[in-house]
Structure formats: structure tokens, C-alpha cells
Amino acid sequence: MLEKDLMQLLHQESFLNYCFGRNDNDVRHWNQWLEDHPEDALQIEELRRTVIMMAKTSQKMLRDRHFEELQQKMAGLPITPVKKKSSWKPSLAAAAVILIITSVALIYHRTLKLEKNNIIAQKVDIKPGGDKAVLTLGNGKKIILSESGNGQIAVQGKAQITKTANGQIVYKISDQSTGGDELPEYNTIEAPAGGQWQVVLPDNSKVWLNAKSSLTYPISFVGNERKVQLKGEAYFEITHNEKMPFKVASKSQTVEVLGTHFNIMAYDDEQMMRTTLLQGSVRISDNGRSRILVPGQQAQVSNVEMNVTEVADLEDVTSWKNGYFKFNENLESTMRKIARWYDVKVSYTGNIDPSLRFGGKISRYKNLSSALKIMELTGNVHFKVEGRRVTVMQ
């Protein structure tokens, strides 16, 4: 947001109402605006804090002045008239001018302070992840998808593999007749740290693969089931087929569906696997335990237990697929997401509380410094960035 736009906000009654929580409609309006413009969240939050701080300062000065007048009355002294030229006379116009000038000055001061003190301001910022993945064919050949051109990139048996203009990998089977007793070849698509990719499977099911994740699948589905292997995290939109259930194996867990939308997060460095259902129904099986989910529920599976959350935060679960971070977890979990997407190593120093929680959203396509600055607004945590290492400090 430009400086002149920030100045104009200070003239808007709706923005001041938002700052002081005086009008529910204005508060909702600005909260929605921030959701739509996460890149401006830092500046708006700084401005809001400054407005509140200056209002408190103004009120204190007025109270001090009234107290001084009361003391003069009690002492029988003539009341010293308030000079009209005083900046702090309770004139809304004068207060507004002072507020504007001082607020903007403070914004500059705080912004400068952030950039000087923080660490985040290393000369070369770390860019966000992007569409990067490697496709390994059944014969072992590897194709770096971000470097390959659009169009047909491989043919395996009856399967044609195409890279589309919008970055998808699409499988098409030239002959839909069954392959008899032939065993299908398997492909693996792997998104590295800082990568992501979308693939359309031979049955037209769609899979979005998150960073540091891989999916192994046959180039054609035969037999009485469609089975794939997932490591990491992926969002699935599965084509309905009652005769061939779709199964996703992740570590010890198997998710079975007929046709539905769901997200599985099964990273090795997470304490539990999370399967969240958006449409349809799924069956979760793990070491003899089994549960069926309905839309809105989330299964959390660890080595010792399987729990189901009745009302999952679906926006949070799918935020990565939709291109943004929603900070809604504790510090360590949030930093693991940061590490996977920005391909950085994270370490901690000092007495950091790992249960710290953060709020807010930001585009995944902002540089690392922008994401860290949102978290620093809490005042509870700071970061030092050296190369591709992020140190979390108090």
C-alpha cells in the first residue's frame, strides 16, 4: 500500500471505527479487506496500533490537564486558561491533524526499526516455492517437469503423458480395453521442498501435491481397485467409480473412497497423519482401527490413537492448495510449513514457547521476509535469517 493511501485511511471514519472496534459492520468490512489483501496486513496492523496508541496518549494528556485545573481550584488559584494554540485542546480537527502527522511518523519509525533490528532484512530475500517436480517413469527415466516443454512428454504402453499449458501432468489411455493379466507400470511424481505440482491420473482424478511430497501410481488402473501411495501432503478430487474404490496408502494408514474430495497430510516429521474430508465419505483404516468420515470432519492418526475432529477448519486445511498460508497453528507446526515451502532449515534459540499461536493470512507467493514479519507482529518471536537457515528467537 502506498504512503498516500495510508494517510487517506486516517481520514476514513470506517477505518477509525475498525481500529477502535466501534462499529461491527466496519470491523467486518476491514477484516474481509485484510483477507483479500494479505500483502498489506503488516502496514495496516502497524497503523491500527499507532492510532490506538495516539488516542490513549491524547486521552491521558486531557486527563492530566483537567487534574491540573482541579488542583488549581482546590488551592484557590485562578485557573490558567487553556491556550487556544495548544495542540491538545479537545478539538477533533486539531487532534486529527496531530494524529495523522504523528501516526505516519511512527509508521516510518517502526518500519525502519523492524528493518534495522531484524534479521529478516538480509540483503538477498528468499523467494517462495513454485511449480517444481520430478516425474520418474516406470523404466527409471526422470523428467524435470519445470524444465520440460508443454505437450507430450512421454509414452508408456497405452498411456500418453502430457504437460499442459497450466502446468498439469495428464495421463490419457489410448485403448480403454483391459490389459489382461499385464501388470501396470508405476510412475512417481515428487515435489521437492519449495515445489508443488498437479497431476490428472488415468481415471481423470485430480491430485494437488504439496511441497516435499510424492505420489506413486500405476499408469492405468486395472483390477478391482485404484491404489496409490502418498508421502507428504496432497489434495484429492477423485472420480466416482463404485466398481473400483480409490485407495491412498500413507505409512500405516489407508484411506478408501468411491469418489470424493479430501486432503491427506502425512509428513514424516509430523506427529500424526491428518485426513480431512470436504465432500462424500471416506473410510480411514490404520493398524486394525477404522473410522468413516463425513464432510467437515478430520481424522488424526498417530501410533497410539485415532481421533476424529467433528468440525475441522477446512479453509486452513486447503489454504496451501489455494495459494496462501493461514497461520492457525502453534509455532513449531507453522515453521515446518515455512521450511517446506521456502526450502529453509529452522532452528530455535532461547526459551521459545513452542505452543505460541499466530493469526493472519499471507500469500504463499510472497518472499520469506513477508511471512516472518506477520509472525513478528505478535512481539513474542523474532527471526534471524542467514543463507537458507532461519533461527527463531525471542
TrEMBL record:
Highest taxon of the lineage: Bacteria
Domain Protein FecR C-terminal intervals: 328-392
> Mind telling me which InterPro entries this protein's record contains?
FecR, FecR_C, Ferrdict_sens_TM
* Domain (FecR protein) ranges: 188-283
Ranges in coiled-coil conformation? none
One Pfam family name from the record? FecR_C
Question: Gene3D superfamilies under this entry?
Answer: 2.60.120.1440, 3.55.50.30
Q: What is the name listed in the Swiss-Prot or TrEMBL entry for this protein?
A: FecR domain-containing protein
Native source species: Mucilaginibacter sabulilitoris
